[in-house]
Specification:
Helix content is 0%, strand content 53%. The chain is mostly beta strands. It has strands at residues 10-16, 22-28, 34-39, 48-55, 62-63, 67-70, 73-78, 82-89. Strands 1, 2, 3, 4, 5, 6, 7 and 8 form an eight-stranded antiparallel β-sheet that branches. The chain contains no helices and eight strands.
């Protein structure tokens, strides 16, 4: 799947899983938290939830509170110098 951003400190990848869910991986190299809005186009659903898992200097794949997906978009904040994996499900 395609994933892109104009933010030089943010790296994105996206994958479709065999169970139909989608995974978005966001790496934030910035010294500050970065608000993001992912437009989830052509994934087959426009509502659901995204469960974030954070890895940083003090956490290793730590599950966070789910974020709603509405209108085909996911809005969240990627903490400074962290990797967040969002698992998006219907």
């Amino acid at each position: 799947m395609g994933a892109g951003t104009s933010d030089a400190d943010l790296r994105l990848s996206a994958f479709r899983n065999t169970d139909g869910s989608v995974t978005v991986v966001a790496l934030n190299a910035a010294a500050g938290a970065t608000p993001v809005s992912f437009s989830l186009q052509n994934i087959g659903f426009t509502t659901g939830t995204a469960t974030p898992y954070v890895t940083d200097g003090s956490r290793s794949t730590a599950r966070q509170q789910a974020v709603p997906v509405t209108g085909g978009s996911l809005k969240a904040t990627v903490p400074a110098r962290s990797l967040v994996t969002y698992t998006v499900r219907r």
